[in-house]
What we know:
Elements: E1 4-6, H1 12-17, H2 21-36, H3 39-42, E2 49-52, E3 59-64, E4 70-74, H4 75-94, E5 100-105, H5 108-121, E6 125-131, H6 138-146, E7 150-153, H7 157-161, E8 166-169, E9 185-188, E10 202-205, E11 218-220, H8 221-226, E12 239-242, H9 251-264, E13 268-269, E14 279-280, E15 283-284
Parallel strand pairs: 1-4, 5-6, 5-8, 6-7, 8-9, 9-12, 10-11, 10-12
Antiparallel strand pairs: 1-13, 2-3, 3-4, 14-15
Helix pairs in contact: 2-4, 2-9, 4-5
Amino acid sequence: xxxxxxxxxxxxxxxxxxxxxxxxxxxxxxxxxxxxxxxxxxxxxxxxxxxxxxxxxxxxxxxxxxxxxxxxxxxxxxxxxxxxxxxxxxxxxxxxxxxxxxxxxxxxxxxxxxxxxxxxxxxxxxxxxxxxxxxxxxxxxxxxxxxxxxxxxxxxxxxxxxxxxxxxxxxxxxxxxxxxxxxxxxxxxxxxxxxxxxxxxxxxxxxxxxxxxxxxxxxxxxxxxxxxxxxxxxxxxxxxxxxxxxxxxxxxxxxxxxxxxxxxxxxxxxxxxxxxxxxxxxxxx
Length: 285
């Protein structure tokens, strides 16, 4: 039986909350570390699923070769979900779970997805200060309240960042001259250079292959997860996690969203899938 769904942008936060998206991106990072050293694995498609990142109308397509099932979703939305999932995974890796105070700088869907991912997948979050939106959707504020997480909508970035041990850039920032507390973790999910004026002790990226040749000293999250890099050297260090590959899609991540949509009744029947260079009526080239 085939199930072809179209997941709409406003359903992405619920699909993210109902999935284990951070685990999916962690598995993808670990797989890349293993596959890089093995040409056979590097070219293998896992699980019979393929992801086409652009099939027109800003849509991405996940398609199961063996089941004729699939998911259409906004390509920009998938990018935002990946950024939120990577942010949650990095927070799990580097932030002490005792008490986590979060600052989210950004607006729109990206900010909402980040707050959703952090609230659902990072233990110990006690307060979220957000700067960017004039107001948050009422259902998101209610979810935070039900989870016992405090919420502040700050008028400026410096106010949102003050006292936070996890700072998330969900949208571009004109300046970043904040005073960061000892041991803070800053995660840049914008895909752009961060104008951070504070001193950073360590830098991590999600894909070192995307670093410019002139960049040195940055470690890869995949290396930390695989145990080939020691990770955080001291709890007092200020860390920058620069997410370079948020637009890379991710088959396992998208499949998590698909499974979540099925479980929670999200999406609408997709009808006929669009033809792509690799997909023509059920046959993959």
